Amino acid sequence: MITLILLALLLVPCALAGGVLAFFWKIRRLAVLRWSAISYLILVLLVLFGVGPWAIARMLVHAGSRPIDRQLKTTPAHFEVPYEDIVFEARDSVRLSGWFIPPTTKKVVIICTHGLFRNRSEMLDRVMPLAREGYGALLYDSRSHGASDKSLVSLGYYERNDVLGAVQYVHCRYQDSVEMPRIVLMGVSMGAVAVLEAAAESRDYNALILDSPFSSLRETIIDHTWLWFKLPRFPFPNLFLFWFQRAAGFDPDRVASHKAIARVQPVPLLIIASQGDNRIRPSVARELYDESKAPVKKIEIFGRDVLHGAAARMHPAEYSALLKGFLEEALGEAARNSSDQTDAGVVRPNP
């Protein structure tokens, strides 16, 4: 649809110019119409193969929260959950804004990472039922989203620094405490991939929750080229990735969930997907589940009525029960594994 609208917009000036010239230059009418058609074809090729991929890559690299999300004013206070407004630095020093909910009865902090074009409000419905159960949480705006500082958007590569900065914030906050809370990394869509990429570089976490992760940056670009623009899978995705790499400053093939999950430490893992997700196939979740070496792992595939990343919104009670059940099992298992490995001389980040 977007491509058809663009082609129609390009056609209008060419048709108007050709029509006017043909009307006043009747002796060369056929030549004028022919050159108008050729001009339109050249313009279409220029936009589809040059300006278009470049412009879309630039727009994505400088993306931020969509307008409807920027208007959201809901905070944890609306759920009667105490919280603090915080600012912390990502690992690469980008300043990020967030909410911190101190843990009460559960010595656990869930670090929540939202998806592309969203902000920390996306995570409220997911984590507030857990906060009421005594879990702590850190919800933050990823770089260039919400109230956080501007930086390049990368669909997970630079955003992994946001996750690692949040982990460091929790460690610094509790560095003088008798007991360090255990850390759960949770992300949705782009946030899930950022969590995976961060987990592949750290050991300071005790469980992972991945909601709607994509397979790789390259694959999701190929899929969305057809989904959003109805353009062939070749050569348009390659053109976009060419410009994206130059705008973002890194190799897009470095963002790959299958490679990352092979490098994460073996902690309990929950993967969530849905059959109704037309953006990311549920088979991606199944493949990541099969590849994981987690001692405790669970996969939940919601039905065809659930769109991309919408399970918490469309089935809140079921989603909440899923997370609670997983955390009770996962953190109990993590505690046992921690004790066993400490006895064996292996240093664990969170005893």
Task: Provide keyphrases for this structure.
Rossmann fold; 12 helices; alpha/beta; eight-stranded mixed sheet; 2 domains; 351 residues; 14% strand; elongated; single chain; disordered C terminus
Write the layout of secondary structure elements.
Blueprint: H1 2-24, H2 29-61, H3 67-70, E1 84-89, E2 95-101, E3 108-113, H4 124-132, E4 136-140, H5 159-173, E5 182-188, H6 190-199, E6 207-211, H7 217-229, H8 236-248, H9 257-261, E7 269-274, H10 282-291, E8 297-302, H11 311-314, H12 316-343
Parallel strand pairs: 3-4, 3-5, 5-6, 6-7, 7-8
Antiparallel strand pairs: 1-2, 2-4
Helix pairs in contact: 1-2, 2-8, 4-12, 5-6, 7-8
Note down, in words, how this protein is organized.
With 351 residues, the chain is an alpha/beta fold. The chain has 2 domains: 1-61 and 218-249, no CATH class; 67-216 and 255-343, 3-Layer(aba) Sandwich (Rossmann fold), CATH 3.40.50. The chain has helices at 2-24, 29-61, 67-70, 124-132, 159-173, 190-199, 217-229, 236-248, 257-261, 282-291, 311-314, 316-343; strands spanning 84-89, 95-101, 108-113, 136-140, 182-188, 207-211, 269-274, 297-302. The protein has an 8-stranded mixed sheet with strand order 1-2-4-3-5-6-7-8, sandwiched between helices. Helix 10 (282-291) links the parallel strand 7 and strand 8 (297-302). The longest helix has 33 residues, at 29-61. The protein is elongated and about 90 Å long. Residues 334-351 have low confidence and may be disordered.
